[in-house]
């Protein structure tokens, strides 16, 4: 099914238009019956959607952070990434199932439909839910928290846009939190 497109004005002159697409989340969640921690992003970037797996942009520090926290080498392939998560009892998905979005811009997200996290929670003994950054936190609180009745703790974003946090600082913060539950 071809995504619906609309023209939306961005900042600047009215002639400066960019296409906004309705996109359905194309990536299946990663989890199994041993997953104890659920980490949620907001919505996959264009690079992740092209790669067909989470945190596909090479500048996103998610895989470096998770590998360091788990004391393992940084995975390169999708299968290595999936194995790293499952070996360490980590489930990964995103808050948003579908939305209108321009490129990878979180600021452009509109018309959100959330993912149904029961799919994971009914199949795995999840002890804690974390969101990767403020955008995921905002959409989790707005669309999911009241329905589930389970709060999510916000970890600092691994996105390259979060330049205030170095990789070392991210590893320290994520490690403090995740070591308490893993």
Describe this structure as you would to a colleague.
With 182 residues, the chain is an alpha/beta fold. It has a single domain (27-96, 114-178), classed as Uracil-DNA glycosylase-like domain (Uracil-DNA Glycosylase, subunit E, 3-Layer(aba) Sandwich), CATH 3.40.470. The protein is built from 7 helices and 8 strands; from the N terminus they run βββαααβββαβααβα. The protein has helices at residues 46-51, 62-70, 78-87, 118-121, 134-143, 145-148, 167-178, and strands at residues 5-9, 17-24, 37-41, 90-94, 96-101, 110-114, 128-132, 153-155. The strands form 2 sheets. Strands 1-2-5-6 form a 4-stranded antiparallel beta sheet. α2 packs across α7. The protein is globular, with a radius of gyration of 16 Å. It starts with a strand and ends with a helix. Residues 1-17 have low confidence and may be disordered.
Notable characteristics:
single chain, 182 residues, alpha/beta, Uracil-DNA Glycosylase, subunit E, 4-stranded antiparallel sheet, 4-stranded parallel sheet, 7 helices, 8 strands
